[in-house]
Amino acid sequence: MNILVVGGGGREHTIIRKLRENPEVNTIYALPGNGGIAQDATCVPISATAIDDIVKFASENAIDFAVVAPDDPLAMGCVDRLHAIGIPCFGPEAKAAQIEASKVFSKNLMKKYGIPTARYETFSDADAAIAYIRQGSFPIVIKADGLALGKGVLICEDEQAAVDGVRAIMLDKRFGDSGNHIVVEEFLEGPEVSVLAFTDGKVVKPMVSSMDHKRAGDHDTGLNTGGMGTIAPNPYYTPAVAERCMQEIFLPTIAAMNAEGRTFRGCLYFGLMITKDGPKVIEYNCRFGDPETQVVLPLLKSDLLTIMHACENGTLDQTEVAFSDGAACCVILASGGYPEKYEKGKEITLNDAESAANVQVFHSGTALKDGALVTNGGRVLGVTATADDLGSAIQDAYAAAKKIRFEGMFMRSDIGARAMQACNND
Ligand code: AMP
Ligand code: GLY
Q1: Model pTM?
Q2: Which of 44, 75, 83, 372 has a CB 3.0–4.6 Å from the CB of 101, allowing a cystine?
Q3: CA nearest ligand 2 atom 5, residue
């Protein structure tokens, strides 16, 4: 079988490594891939958002199955276009990808179908938003409607910050057109849990839960990033919480999307907050999370390609989705300056970081330059270790991460520390 994977980050590298475990897989093409993915797949220099070029490539290269991993091509209808030329895909069509692509859409969906989430109002006029904020309590949360690389969320401590935030998003267009509409919502408190779930639009099979670490600095300080590390499973996601999530959030969301004529097939990501009033949805993503995938898929015992086919064919109820009882930790190695300005092109020395059987190095932002591996992004590598328990996974991930060198490299030193504390308090 020939497989096409759209995307070129750590998430895609993890998916490709897992797909390779299926003996029926021959060639995997990554569009565009990256310097590390090149060791596991055939990289083709076509951007993940060049939909016409992707469709042309797929039609000319006998592709049997396509995996569209990032949010942008999903929202742009890449899966719809591949379906139109008869190629089965893993990933939602554009009208289902709206669950991530428009926060106004997803908030209204939750309100209409009674799915627990933060109270909110939506606005397309800055003056109306400011008038509403002046009557509110603080902190308050302002979100740009559209895709904004995970940066379109402002948590405002007081009225002035909130008013400035509305102006920045709606009038100065800090996040471009994604700020034409905004959501203003209640600030929620509690531990956050990420749950990725496979669905064929009929049944939903959650994967092992995980915890992201979004801030750049130790102890959750500094700017928000795409994610500096992850652990799985998340200790706050107890069996009782999982059952509530299934009944109150996962099943109602699948049913709501069907009722709206937007059946979701693929990986639906639930960003949850476990508040004192129960679990609530912070956000939906229409895809695998990054770097959640780097800890979730290494724990998957079942065959990924079989599951992906089942999501497309509507046979997920008959398909095994089993995870190991162990734990995983992924530590992200980032370029100095990230998430702000950083330099690229620094030579990377991996040493024997990947020598242990329980360690994998997934490439997020790397490139090959004259045969040498160099940095090519803010998040450069994700070092994942799996083990029987979380403490060993954390220890092994850090031991491997510390073998790697590139100029300006930095990592958080406390990935998994909060989860360990929660485990010990049990
Ligand atoms: P999002 O892009 O919607 O996931 O938001 C990014 C981050 O902002 C989340 O991971 C939360 O830490 C935080 N956040 C978003 N919405 C809220 C909220 N209503 N209350 C508190 N924190 C929030
Ligand atoms: N790690 C969060 C995301 O993928 O959006």
Answers
A1: 0.96
A2: 75
A3: 289
Q: What digits encode the pLDDT tens for the residues 333-344?
A: 999 999 999 999
Cβ atoms of 361 and 393 within 8 Å: the answer is no
Give the integer Cα–Cα distance in Å for 415 and 412.
6
Quick: pLDDT tens for 52-108: 999 999 999 999 999 999 999 999 999 999 999 999 999 999 999 999 999 899 999
Q: Which residue's alpha carbon is nearest to atom 3 within ligand 2?
A: 289
- Please tell me if the CB atom of residue 185 comes closer than 6 angstroms to any atom of ligand 1: yes
Q: Which of 106, 155, 187 to mutate to test the pocket of ligand 1 (most atoms within 8 A of CB)?
A: 155
Burial of 251 (0-12, 13-18, 19+ CB in 10 A): middle
Mutate to test the pocket of ligand 1, among 105, 153, 285 (most ligand atoms within 8 A of CB): 153
Locate the ligand 2 atom nearest the alpha carbon of residue 212 and give its number: 1
